[in-house]
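Something for you to look into today, if you have time. Could you write out one complete protein record for me, on any chain you like? The space below this message is yours for that.
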Amino acid sequence: IWNALTDNYGNVMPVDWKSSHTRALHLPTLNLSEKGVNDNLNLDLSDDEELREQLDMHSIIVSCINEEPLFTAEQVIEEIEEMMQESPDPEDDETPTQSDRLSILSQEIQTLKRSSTNNSYEERVKRLSVAELNELLEEIETAIKDYSEELVQQLALRDELEFEKEVKNSFISVLIEVQNKQREHKETAKKKKKLKNGSPQNGKQERSHMPGTRFSMEGISNVIQNGFRHTFGNSSGEKQVLGYLLPF
């Protein structure tokens, strides 16, 4: 009996879902509508290129791995000369308002000098009341305060410019000394090569013991600090001055 039942089921064809009645009733309930592909897509290739460059991790890592190049004494001197040429002139930094104020103060001083030597001014002061004298006294005290503040600012500016000039001269002299030592070292190395007749082994030993002719920023910084100690003495602010002069 079992064999007869299973043989009958084996002859049944599989159900075709697409042509079935259930499928025909199912499609209207889904409410599907065919939508055409929009070919007018705004694809900006430049944005893709820019995004690709920003996400290029290889170039980013390589740029971070690159070591800081060493600077020779000549390059440092040239860079300092460019910085000094590009530095603004203190006279140009003087604003028109400050110059106008100085001219007004000088005119007021001249007026006070002329009025103090004039007899009519003394007579006019004698005829003033107590309130007018107090008001005149307040004006004179205010003028004296303004003149004193302006004088202190100008003296501080003068001292700052003198110190800056002295530091620059000392700095340049130390750099010139480094350059001269470098030149002497090159000449000495050439003489040693000539005396040893260019032997390969001696040349290797000489190169192994000969310090490099290129100076790192740390070496030049140490030489300059030693020059500052010799010129200005030991002070706690010498490294700050060096950092102000070498912003690279």
Summary: Residues 171 and 195 are 36 Å apart (CA to CA). The first helix runs from residue 2 to 10.
